[in-house]
Amino acid sequence: MKHWKLIFPFITTKEIPHDIEERLSHCAFYPLKDALTKTSGFALLTESERFIKSDGRHLFQYTEQSRKADVATVNHIHKERLQAVTDEGREVTPETLEAIRAVAEREALKFARINTTSVYILYDFPAGRVWCAGSTVKKCETALKRLRKVIGSLDTEPVVLPLAARQLVKVLQQGRRWLNDSLAIPEYAKVVAEDRDGEAGVTFDGVCVLDRQVGEMLEGMLIRTTEMHLHQPAAMRDGKVLASFVLDAPEHAGVSLRALDYGSGKGEDDDGAEQNHAADMQIVAKTCEQIMAGLNAFTHHIGG
After folding, report:
1. Is there a single domain that holds both residue 219 and residue 230?
2. Residue 235 sits in the same domain as residue 266
3. pLDDT higher than 50, residue 277
4. Residue 64, phi then psi, degrees to nearest 5
5. Of 68, 219, 265, 288, which one has the greatest count of Cβ atoms within 10 A?
């Protein structure tokens, strides 16, 4: 579950090719070694598989490793090597300095810290969605770009809800917290709003968002982020909370679902990695699609 804390939804109509396993083998991830400074590709999700497939859904893990020589370490090694050349009475030429610098950088790379980032791509063809879990949208787009090369072509576009920021304000100003029968803003939710020029903002945290004063302060503003709950639709307001998340829905950029908690209750070692990945894939796909269906219904509802 820890991999799905920040999700960026994309729309797609492309189908995964049948020979995806062979295509991925040409874009496999291998850990950094020797003097390499960067490596990337699709990592193994199990001991032998680079993707998991179930019910028309595919799960991929794009991984990137990089390292950069520490400047202080390079300078220290360079100084020592340069002193050794000087002590030997050898002439120090520009070429010599360049060669010593290159050696110092190679030496420093051996001790450089390796940075690892991963993006999980859940290709949900039945829903026409791609759910990307990563630390930033840029990293998700990098992962999708690599998958695009593997597939051959890939049409994706971020999900944008241009009316959500304004309609969420109306909901709270009307003293409501329910968007529809499945989505609701918690009474004491943390809500971040900004003016329409993006120059001033206000954060409500630890106060009842249904208070009249909150509605007054929201006049002429847009809600940029808010905590939300996904409820079991059939039970309406007494329904079970299926998931909690933070909605980030800017007017002119893609939606993101942060701090997603769908309560899988599974530990990292329960039933093995493959079962965990497969279970999470199904739960995340179902949960995120319910959230997006609710948001779409809310933003397209007249008077919402």
Report:
1. yes
2. yes
3. yes
4. -135, 135
5. 288
223 and 202 in a common domain: yes
Predicted confidence at residue 61, as pLDDT, reads: 96
Q: How far is CA 181 from CA 12, 110, 168, 301, in A?
A: 27, 57, 15, 13
Query: Which two tokens mark 247?
Result: 């909605």
Residue whose token pair is 């007249």: 302
Q: Residue 218 carries which side chain, given as an amino acid letter?
A: L
- DSSP-assigned letters across all residues of 119-182: EEEEEEGGGTEEEEESSSHHHHHHHHHHHHHHHS---EEE---TTHHHHHHHHHHTT--BSSSS
Listing DSSP states for 29-64 in one string gives -----TT--EEEEEPPSSSS-SEEEETTEEEEEEEE
Q: Spell 263-296 as b/e; 16+ CB within 10 A means b.
A: eeeeeeeeeebeebbbbbbbbbbebbbbbbebbe
pLDDT in tens, 109-119: 877 888 999 99
Q: Letter for the amino acid at 103?
A: V
pLDDT per residue over 203-240, tens digit each?
999 999 999 999 999 998 999 999 999 998 665 556 68
